[in-house]
Each structure stands twice: as C-alpha cells, then as structure tokens.
C-alpha cells in the first residue's frame, strides 16, 4: 500500500479534521445505479467498550425479513462512512444487512499496513456484535441475521482490510475489493491467499494512477487467489470514482498528496457498474442465487465486454 510522509504539524491537523468527518453521523445524498426490489432503512449505532460508530442498513419490509446475510464495509484511507452510503442502501435493497464501519485512528499510526491486523480484529468484533444483536429481543436486527453467512467489502485500504479479513476469519464466505491499494509484496496475507475459502472479487479501475494497483505490482492478486475468484477492470475508472462524493480530506487536497489521477469515465456510471458486480457476487456466494452469475460470466457480462466497458479475469469453479 502506498505510504506518504507528512510533517508532524500537518499530520496533527489532518488527523483532527479527518476524525471529525469519520465520526460524522449525517446521511449524505447519493444516486443509486443498481437499486434492488426492497425498501431500505438505516441507522447509526455504536458498539464495544470504545463505542465505535457504525452505520447499519437493512431491508425495511413488513413483516421484517429474517436470516439475511450480512456484509461489513470498510471505508478507504481518511474517508468517512458517508462516502460509501450508496453501497449500503443498494445492498440492503437486495436483501442484505450492511454495516459500514469507522476507524478513528485512520491508519496514521502506521499509515495503513501496520494497522491491518487491528482492522481485522475489529471486523471480527463487529461480527460478534451482530450475533449479539440478532439474539437481543429489543434490537432492530433481532432475528434478521443469518449467523452463518457473512461477507466483507471495502475500498482502497479498506479493500486491503477486507482481503485480510476474508483470508484470516473463517466466518467470511465472500469478499469484494474496490480498487485495492496494492504495490506488490506489501500485503502481508499474500502467502495465505491461495488457501482462502472465501469467494474473492477484485473490482478495479485502469486509470487510478498510483492510488490503486501500482505499476510496480507485476503480479495481480487474482493470480494468488483460488477459485472462485474474479478480477473486474472497469475501463476509464479512477480511484476516486468508487466514492459517492469527495467528502473529508479528499475534498481539499488528498489528490495532491497521493497523486491520484483523474480517469475519463463518468463516476456515477463507475459506481453503478461496481455495485452491479458486487451485488451479483454476493447474491451468488452469500445467497446461492446462481442466476446472478450472468452478470460476470454470462450474456450480460459479454455485453459489457463488447461495449468496451470492462475486462474480466476469471478463476471460477
């Protein structure tokens, strides 16, 4: 993962500002590119002794749906939960419970890699909390969660966290990484990746510059991944296109600090495409709805390739 050296005074200001954004509890407007068949609702919650914040999305039906798979979403470096709410809304509309987590440290202690283990531990604790909520009669999630079906997803460094969680936590059945920040040998779980039991989907843009998969990463993660795995490259997409909006530090200069390039693709189209593949992957590997394979290995996938919109590298069962 790319690291950046900042002066202590600048760093302290960035930490304070980013923490304020990361802990923000306001829902942000976002456009939905792949809405599902159910109404959805969301609420803000805290968990654990440190009262860490979460945003929880769920299908809002009468009667409530039961025994649903759950997805834990980790934001990118110095981005708040609000930057990814469209994924939460849409996955909930497709019948998933979704938790977008916050991490107040923001990776500054070790700038990413050094804190991956801590993030993985927190994802595991969120699963434990979800099980408790599922069993607590006065919880909004009471009876709603299938305690045997969990997935993870994330963007940038959050994608690295999701990969590491899928590799190390046997409760994870499926993973989707959005433009993972990856330089080559800097992802500590590479050695364990071939043994993962989770279904792994890597969605990336080909115009992300140094923010996504670096040109120095000569071997893509799909080459380490057992079936079922897939890499989806969205043509013209840049690293920032996967966010709902430039909230937090991205909004006032992160592109200068991190050298993120601006791709030619329309950002709403990129998010719609990414959500479509994400929903399809989780529908297949968390719900067993095999008809959604068509989006990444059937006629619908062929249409996207023919339109020069995407490329696929498939390692499927």
Topology summary:
Blueprint: H1 8-22, E1 40-47, E2 52-59, E3 68-74, H2 85-93, E4 97-101, H3 116-135, E5 145-155, H4 157-168, E6 172-178, E7 199-205, E8 229-234, H5 254-258, H6 267-287, H7 294-297, H8 299-306, E9 310-315
Parallel strand pairs: 3-4, 3-5, 5-6, 6-7, 7-8
Antiparallel strand pairs: 1-2, 2-4, 8-9
Helix pairs in contact: 3-4
Report Rg. Answer: 18 Å
Any idea how many domains? 1
- Structural class designation: alpha/beta
Describe the global form: globular
Task: Write a structural description.
The protein is α/β, with parallel strands linked by helices. It has a single domain (8-315), classed as Rossmann fold. Helices cover 30% and strands 21% of the residues. It contains 8 helices and 9 strands. It has helices at residues 8-22, 85-93, 116-135, 157-168, 254-258, 267-287, 294-297, 299-306; strands at 40-47, 52-59, 68-74, 97-101, 145-155, 172-178, 199-205, 229-234, 310-315. A 9-stranded mixed β-sheet has the order 1-2-4-3-5-6-7-8-9, sandwiched between helices. The longest helix has 21 residues, at 267-287. The radius of gyration is 18 Å and the shape is globular. The two termini are 30 Å apart. Mean pLDDT is 84; it is low at 1-24, 106-113 and 248-257.
Descriptive key words:
8 helices, 317 residues, 30% helix, disordered N terminus, nine-stranded mixed sheet, Rossmann fold, single chain, alpha/beta
Please summarize what this structure is.
This protein is α/β, with parallel strands linked by helices. It has helices spanning 8-22, 85-93, 116-135, 157-168, 254-258, 267-287, 294-297, 299-306; strands at residues 40-47, 52-59, 68-74, 97-101, 145-155, 172-178, 199-205, 229-234, 310-315. A 9-stranded mixed beta sheet has the order 1-2-4-3-5-6-7-8-9, sandwiched between helices.
């Amino acid at each position: 993962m790319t690291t950046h050296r900042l002066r202590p005074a600048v760093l302290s200001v960035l930490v304070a500002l980013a923490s304020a954004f990361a802990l923000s509890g306001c829902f942000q407007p976002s456009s939905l590119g792949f809405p599902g068949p159910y109404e959805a609702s969301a609420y803000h919650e805290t968990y654990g002794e440190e009262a860490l914040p979460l945003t929880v999305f769920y299908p809002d039906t009468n009667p409530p749906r039961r025994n649903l798979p759950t997805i834990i979403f980790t934001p990118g470096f110095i981005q708040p939960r609000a930057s990814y709410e469209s994924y939460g809304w849409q996955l909930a509309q497709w019948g998933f419970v979704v938790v977008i987590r916050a991490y107040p440290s923001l990776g500054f202690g070790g700038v990413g890699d050094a804190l991956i283990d801590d993030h993985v531990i927190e994802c595991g604790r969120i699963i434990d909390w979800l099980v408790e909520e599922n069993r607590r009669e006065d919880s909004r999630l009471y009876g709603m969660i299938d305690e045997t079906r969990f997935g993870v997803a994330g963007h940038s460094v959050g994608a690295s966290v999701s990969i590491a969680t899928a590799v190390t936590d046997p409760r994870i059945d499926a993973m989707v990484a959005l433009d993972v920040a990856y330089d080559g040998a800097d992802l500590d779980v590479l050695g364990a990746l071939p043994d993962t039991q989770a279904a792994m989907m890597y969605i990336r843009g080909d115009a992300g510059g140094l923010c996504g998969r670096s040109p120095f990463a000569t071997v893509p993660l799909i080459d380490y991944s057992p079936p079922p795995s897939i890499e989806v490259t969205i043509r013209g997409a840049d690293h920032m296109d996967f966010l709902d909006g430039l909230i937090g530090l991205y909004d006032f200069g992160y592109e200068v600090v991190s050298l993120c390039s601006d791709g030619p693709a329309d950002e709403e189209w990129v998010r719609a495409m990414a959500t479509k593949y994400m929903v399809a992957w989780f529908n297949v590997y968390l719900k067993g709805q095999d008809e959604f394979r068509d989006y990444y290995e059937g006629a619908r996938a062929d249409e996207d390739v023919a339109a020069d919109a995407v490329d696929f590298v498939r390692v499927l069962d």
